[in-house]
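User: My notes are a mess, but here's the protein and adenosine-5'-triphosphate's SMILES. Can you give me a structure?
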Amino acid sequence: MSPSRHTGGDEPVAAVRCTGLHYAFGSTKAVDGVDLEVEPGEVFGLLGPNGAGKTTTIRAITTLLPVPPGVVGVFGHDAARQRMAVRRLLGYVPQQLSADGSLTGEENVALFARVFDVPRRERAARVAQALDAVGLASAAHRMAATYSGGMVRRLELAQALVSAPRLLILDEPTIGLDPIARDSVWDRITEIRTGTGMTVLVTTHSMEEADQRCDRLALMHRGRIRALGTPAELKAGLTAHRREAGEAEPPPPSLEDVFRHFSGSGLDEPGPDERGEFSDVRRTRRTASRVG
Ligand SMILES: Nc1ncnc2c1ncn2[C@@H]1O[C@H](COP(=O)(O)OP(=O)(O)OP(=O)(O)O)[C@@H](O)[C@H]1O
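Assistant: No problem, the inputs look usable. Here's the predicted complex:
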């Protein structure tokens, strides 16, 4: 259960609110009118096929892409007018690797502590705390280049956590990891979220992770949100749809069935920009091979 959406006054303050978010790269409409509300304390998953617009949505929320005023809010701060206030509330783990292999785990996290303005006298303790929270205390003095893929992902989590963010944004945090490393990354995320009440916004291609780890999901396709709800609600919605379509006793759908229903056949349908989709795959593979 997520904590109350009310923070003090009567006005509900969403952790993230997008209202009519559009973003285009040239003629490619990457995000085409997204309305989205993430509640404080929930783990919210953004799903969708390659090129659906998930990363672009996330980059708009993190203020890395410019948006007009009034379109993106983070805990009531406007991403266009109050960029720095928004950035101070966020921890962001991008798809691309952000850890430096030639530094130790501790040095990597300390670098983020400086960049995110953690007060000097608190830095050492906060770096140690962040490394401990992700289970890397004993590897803190090893070069990150010697870490396994799962350890690197947890190190990046520590980098994002060192500023004690209220909103943690993770773009495919478990890509390229084996099932044990995946569970370990997710177990850390879950523990930290339970301990701090932090909100988590995550993109993933894993239906299993989405089903088991997320409170609510939005399914994106071609720049738009096609379905929104808890995993159970999404599955129940597909069952109802199948009944309406004439199936007397449809088998219980999986989340993957829901994904396929809303994303079409995916591979067979041309995307908004084939060239872009190819580069997405190439980028994803590159990231996966560097992490793995
Ligand atoms: N920097 C860019 N320049 C041009 N087009 C881009 C750029 N970034 C994304 N796009 C295009 O915008 C669309 C949405 O891309 P986006 O990366 O947001 O999708 P995604 O859902 O995150 O995909 P993936 O699951 O592969 O990460 C795609 O058609 C992509 O090719």
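The chain is about 40% helix and 20% strand.
User: Great, I'll file this with my notes.
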